[in-house]
């Protein structure tokens, strides 16, 4: 059984069990959960990041939550004087709010990070970048995870 | 030993920003998933990735269970001088693996 | 008569435009398959390369590049059993009969890795099932199995993959069931799997009891599906959601 499917409700599981009935988790975006906000504040040391300068690229409609490509890019000259120190990605509705925290610097040349993540369900993602001047910038995205019709187990 | 795929150019011009892509074979067991017997399977993930360029860290990442199985990471570095890039994945149950690639800077 | 009907039917299928499940995937998943540096299936290919030497395949077969075109011709007729054998079965048979060793079990990482490596050598080549009359009875059985209603849902493969291909089951598009990319990396599995694993999924999905790994029925279905997919390019190692 896949990891996200273990988090699905019993009703959804029964619907699946009833055959090849796919259940699309078309949940509307809700207010951010506190766990997400707390994780962001733990990363920033209490500062509220300002929106902007960060691009968070993720497909808005995900066909399988097990492996979702995600790219974070930050506008920065990446020089000794002005660069990105850290990039972190947070999620709202997985069991843990953290996804990845990267450390980089002028030797990276470009403030861009791509990976693949798990999404237990439809939710909001927030990317936060720490700049060399100590400021924090962020971007967010809402993702809808549809359930594959033919899950295993 | 886990299989890895590391993609970067063999040569680059000085000052060029090169893209590096890495994949490693790893289950990334979350620690939240019940096994067939109903007992939760203990967490077994890669927790940390580092890229050293001639022994100096140029990129690192802390990974959480939300990273997909067979972790993929793509990032970039400035081709400063010819040398060795060392990629290390470490994690639960003493997992640690290092792979190296050489880069010629012209 | 039955064979003639089958031939006509297959000719009809071949004449129609057929589509790999690849075209139904999101652009992101397509990109993952297209780029060997992003395709997780290539990790198994790498494992296969190591095994090709360490398990002794290279001793007889030399460079694996010599296996070009082989995967496109399976399932093939196996004189030993008098029926069809799939590529994974042939590899296991080679290990057992020629190397005198215990073969890697079906669906083990090693077996998948070797199949992926050999499959990759034929990537882009058209599926070319052998025109062997000795395979005709198994082909007819595969055809019948494909059309046989099964399970509590009382559904056959054909009811989804012929009659409703291209339409949606919930949010997922229904593919035409051309097994051109196996073994493949399925996001749902978070790993590599064979066509038999996929068939087991489908059988469990319609709430029927899947056959055991290696069962003759799977190979007969594969034989039928590969004949139906004749001419389509192989994609191993494919990526699917």
- What oligomeric state do the depicted chains represent? heterotrimer
The SSE string of chain B, one letter per element, is EEEEEEEE
In angstroms, what separates the terminal alpha carbons of chain B? 34 Å
Helix content of chain B: under 10%
Tell me the fraction of residues in β-strands of chain A, as a range.
Answer: 35-45%
Protein name (chain B): Sulfur compound chelating protein SoxZ
InterPro entries (chain B): Ig-like_fold (IPR013783), Ig_E-set (IPR014756), SoxZ (IPR030995), SoxZ_dom (IPR014880)
Domain Sulphur oxidation protein SoxZ (chain B): 9-100
Pfam families (chain B): SoxZ
Give a verbal description of the structure.
The complex is a heterotrimer of chains A (about 150), B (about 110) and C (about 240). By secondary structure, chain A is mainly β. Chain A has a single domain (about 30-145), classed as Sandwich (Immunoglobulin-like), CATH 2.60.40. Chain A is built from two helices and nine strands; from the N terminus they run H-H-E-E-E-E-E-E-E-E-E. In chain A, strands 1, 3, 5, 6, 8 and 9 form a six-stranded mixed beta sheet that branches. In chain A, strands 2-4-7 form a three-stranded antiparallel beta sheet, with no helix packed on it. The longest helix of chain A is centred in the N-terminal third of the chain and has 11 residues, at about 35-45. In chain B, strand 7 and strand 8 form a beta hairpin. The longest helix of chain C is centred in the N-terminal third of the chain and has 14 residues, at about 1-15. Chain C has helices at about 1-15, 25-35, 40-55, 55-60, 85-100, 110-120, 135-145, 155-160, 195-205, 215-230, and strands at about 75-80, 85, 170, 170-175, 185, 190-195, 240. Chain C starts with a helix and ends with a strand. Chains in contact: A-B, A-C, B-C. The interface of A and B includes residues 7, 101 and 116 of A. Strand 7 of chain A pairs antiparallel with strand 6 of chain B.
């Amino acid at each position: 059984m896949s990891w996200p499917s273990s988090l699905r409700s019993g009703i959804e599981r029964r619907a699946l069990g009833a055959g090849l009935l796919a259940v699309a988790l078309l949940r509307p975006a809700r207010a951010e959960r506190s766990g997400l906000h707390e994780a962001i504040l733990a990363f920033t040391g209490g500062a509220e990041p300002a929106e902007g300068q960060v691009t968070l690229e993720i497909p808005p409609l995900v066909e399988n939550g097990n492996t979702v490509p995600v790219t974070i890019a930050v506008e920065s000259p990446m020089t000794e004087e002005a660069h990105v120190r850290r990039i972190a990605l947070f999620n709202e509705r997985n069991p843990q709010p953290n996804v990845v925290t990267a450390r980089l610097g002028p030797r990276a040349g470009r403030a861009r990070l791509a990976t693949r993540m798990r999404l237990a369900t439809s939710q909001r993602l927030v990317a936060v970048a720490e700049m060399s001047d100590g400021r924090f910038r962020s971007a967010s995205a809402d993702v809808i995870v549809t359930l594959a019709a033919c899950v295993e187990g | 030993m886990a299989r890895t795929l590391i993609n970067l150019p063999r040569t680059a011009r000085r000052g060029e920003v090169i893209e590096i892509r890495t994949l490693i074979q790893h289950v990334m067991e979350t620690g939240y998933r019940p096994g067939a017997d109903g007992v939760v399977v203990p967490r077994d993930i890669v927790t940390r990735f580092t890229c050293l360029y001639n022994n100096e860290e140029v990129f690192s990442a802390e990974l959480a269970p939300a990273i997909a199985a067979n972790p993929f990471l793509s990032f970039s570095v400035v081709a400063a001088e010819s040398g060795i890039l060392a990629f290390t994945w470490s994690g639960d149950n003493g997992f640690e693996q290092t792979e190296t690639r050489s880069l010629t800077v012209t | 008569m039955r064979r003639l009907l089958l031939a006509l039917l297959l000719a009809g299928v071949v004449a129609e435009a057929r589509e790999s499940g690849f075209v139904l995937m999101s652009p992101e998943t397509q990109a993952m398959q297209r780029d060997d540096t992003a395709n997780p299936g290539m990790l198994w290919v790498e494992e296969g390369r190591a095994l090709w030497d360490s398990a002794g395949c290279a001793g007889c077969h030399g460079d694996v590049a010599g296996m070009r075109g082989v995967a496109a011709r399976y399932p093939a007729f196996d004189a030993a059993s008098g029926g069809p054998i799939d590529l994974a079965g042939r590899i296991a048979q080679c290990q057992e009969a020629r190397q005198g060793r215990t073969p890697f079990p079906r669906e083990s990482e090693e077996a998948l890795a070797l199949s992926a490596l050999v499959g990759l050598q034929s990537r882009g080549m058209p599926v070319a099932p052998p025109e062997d009359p000795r395979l005709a009875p198994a082909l007819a059985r595969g055809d019948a199995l494909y059309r046989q209603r099964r399970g509590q849902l009382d559904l056959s493969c054909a009811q989804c993959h012929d009659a409703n291909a291209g339409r949606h089951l919930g949010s997922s598009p229904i593919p035409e069931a051309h097994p051109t990319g196996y073994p493949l990396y399925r996001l749902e599995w978070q790993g590599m799997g064979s066509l038999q694993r996929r068939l087991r999924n489908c059988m469990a999905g319609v709430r029927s009891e899947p056959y055991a790994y290696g069962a003759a029925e799977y190979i007969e279905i594969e034989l039928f599906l590969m004949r139906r997919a004749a001419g389509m390019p192989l994609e191993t190692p494919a990526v699917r959601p």
